[in-house]
């Protein structure tokens, strides 16, 4: 679907020189692609669970679930999925209408209910952290408010609870004001008060920690580490060197005075992307989702070229037919280094899934052993 190489062209002007066309070649990073691939099965299971939990009474006829396969992007039959993932749901018989024949329904299993209770506990423990994340998203925005529908759309990327707008937000009137009704397209979440403690980026905090450790002032800047085998052309190396020498522009800083095409604005945009990816659960976000916030965060229409242009900071994955921006420094190989505390929810869900997969594997092995024993017994009888 995608070619193996991809180039983006830069057009920048500064007082020292004019850079008219610097081409940056996109390179595949199999290690970071594997990190994305690893989550596919987990995400598929989460989509089906969400579908069932959203049903009245949290129960649904199996044949109705089958009709929603395309919407859930489920590649196997619903019945096959249930069999492949034991422990998620219980199968039972009930009537769709009073006088109809009983049909198979599914509902959350006891194990899934236990996980959901654990999920709520983890959300409660990390509520101050979630509040700070939400404040940061608003503080980086142009007008300090964002469409509620957009925020609902990215709740999974940042680890927000499903009901955060109607449950969490009203408990913090000192920070948030919600206008309109979410889901109607005219609802907005507004920042009420600016908390300076939240207005420090990951990069600024890192520089402060380094300064304290070394006893000398360390300038905030980006970590740049090119992937193995990736070599920049001389003119591009010079451009990156000069660009890194520019002062860091905080994503929480007012940049209304900056020219959209300036190198300073580029520095600020990279800072915003770095901060957004740092705030996300997996330190990566699909590019189409970031594109929904172009106006809110002053991104240019061609913002996705930033991820290829700064290949030592980001990786633009094409895995699964969708562009995903990945923060390089957040990974060691395919493993996350600094894990978001809300990822404990995913870990618990994966434990539930893996327990079911082990159970299924053991049952299949026992079945194969019985078949083998029956075949041997049959062969013995025939030999007699």
Give your account of this protein's structure.
With 384 residues, this protein is an alpha+beta fold. The protein has 3 domains: 7-31 and 221-248 and 258-336, no CATH class; 39-119 and 345-383, Orthogonal Bundle (Arc Repressor Mutant, subunit A), CATH 1.10.10; 126-195. 47% of the residues lie in helices and 14% in strands. It has 17 helices and 13 strands. It has helices at 30-38, 40-53, 62-67, 69-72, 78-84, 110-125, 127-140, 148-153, 155-158, 164-168, 202-214, 234-245, 263-279, 287-291, 294-297, 305-309, 343-383, and strands at residues 7-13, 18-25, 60-61, 89-94, 103-108, 145-147, 176-179, 188-191, 284-286, 314-317, 324-327, 331-332, 335-336. It has a 3-stranded antiparallel beta sheet. It has a 3-stranded antiparallel beta sheet with strand order 6-8-7. A 3-stranded antiparallel beta sheet has the order 9-11-10. Strand 1 and strand 2 form a beta hairpin. It is globular. The N and C termini lie far apart (60 Å). Mean pLDDT is 88; it is low at 1-21. This is PORR domain-containing protein.
- The shape is globular
Order of helices and strands: EEHHEHHHEEHHEHHHEEHHHEHHHEEEEH
User: With helices defined by DSSP (H or I, 4 residues minimum), what is the helix count?
Assistant: 17
Low-confidence stretches: 1-21
- Major pleated sheet: 3 strands, antiparallel
How many strands in all?
A: 13
Spatial strand arrangement across the major sheet: 3-5-4
- Beta strand %: 5-15%
End-to-end span in angstroms? 60 Å
Average residue pLDDT: 88
Residue share in helix: 40-55%
Q: Taking Cα atoms only, what radius of gyration do you get, to the nearest Å?
A: 26 Å
Task: Provide the structure class.
Answer: alpha+beta
Q: How many separate domains?
A: 3
